[in-house]
Amino acid sequence: MTDIKSMTPAELKELMLSVGEKPFRARQIYEWLHQHLAVSYDEMSNLPKSLKQKLADWPVTALEIMDVQVSKIDSTRKYLFRLSDGNMIESVLMKYHHGNSVCISSQAGCRMGCRFCASTIGGLARNLLPSEMLDQIYRIQADTGERVSNVVVMGSGEPLDNYDNLLRFIHILTEEGGLHISQRNLTVSTCGIVPRMYELADEKLQMTLAVSLHAPNDKKRKQLMPIANKYSMEELLDACRYYFEKTGRRITFEYSLVAGVNDSREDALELAGRLKGLNCHVNLIPVNPVRERSFVRSARKAVENFKINLEKCGINGTIRREMGSDIDGACGQLRKRYMEKTESEK
User: Fold this and answer.
1) Coil, helix or strand for 92?
2) How many whole angstroms separate alpha carbon 56 and alpha carbon 287?
3) Phi/psi class of residue 340: alpha, beta or left (left: φ > 0; alpha: ψ in -120 to 50)?
4) Suppose 110 and one of 47, 92, 96, 120 were both cysteines; which one would form an S-S bond, judging by CB atoms 3.0 to 4.6 Å apart?
């Protein structure tokens, strides 16, 4: 692995020994990368020049900010980043009373094909390295001068489709020596890759798992999410129960409401019946309109009624507060617009 920002402290120590350096240099470099957010060896003032020369084969991953959109409504900031190979990804900074939350991407594009999502329209370009996931947070923190306290892996891509890199990212982000963000302040979303959910449960991390459900039954879910053709809702909910059993962490279910598709009283009651007895809460999301899709978001009243019907059956529900509604707020839209513009200029 030549990507130094994705290395664990133990791997960095091995690297130092392999290039004939003292092991303590590993800690210095790790702190420069993950605490001081250095983008080059030149910034690492306590490293000897000879070591910097030795490290020339291990370039420091640093994302380039291509565009920032700032909401006039609530100061939400949407970032478009360029990777070293020219691929584009996006991240969002949301400011809350309890602290700054950053939503990051785990892949450039996505291959999951969910019908209401802009991220997946062009397919998957590639997985992101742990360093590229981390650096979205680091660049935003450096740009704003403000600490990030919550991280949501819910931008473009399916995190569990990039499983090994995701795990490494989580450890570097939450353990000592880096930003040391509490695992309890980390949320990872999945559209429901069931075998990976079991693996993740066995890691016994203290993060929140957010499962994209979006339907009360298999038939409707298959219309919205191709993954539902592979894993039934029962298999998915069994994996959720296992996750709770192993971690003690309540499951969040994401439910995008599409007018006339999955937002009726019957849908709410069927969903409540399915989730009965599972320690969970449902996050209701009025769907973001995407130009290539015909979906229409549910009326505010329909969303509120859906929540009331869930709660009557004892299922906890919240309606997601919209952030940055005056900018390209939906996952993948800013990246997509940039790619279309680049394509048309060729």
Assistant:
1) strand
2) 47
3) alpha
4) 120
H or E stretch at 173 = helix 163-174
What is the full per-residue pLDDT of the chain (346 aa) written as tens digits? 579 999 999 999 999 999 999 999 999 999 999 999 999 999 999 999 999 999 999 999 999 999 999 999 888 999 999 999 999 999 999 998 889 999 999 999 999 988 878 777 889 999 999 999 999 999 999 999 999 999 999 999 999 999 999 999 999 999 999 999 999 999 999 999 999 999 999 999 999 999 999 999 999 999 999 999 999 999 999 999 999 999 999 999 999 999 999 999 999 999 999 999 999 999 999 887 666 567 788 889 999 999 999 999 999 999 987 777 676 655 556 666 666 665 555 5
Of 21, 90, 132, 158, catalytic: 90
The two tokens of residue 178 are 């880096």
Catalytic residue among 64, 254, 331, 343: 331
- For residue 230, what are the CA distances in angstroms to 48, 131, 188, 197, 270? 54, 31, 21, 14, 21
Q: In angstroms, how far is CA 169 from the centroid of its own chain? A: 11
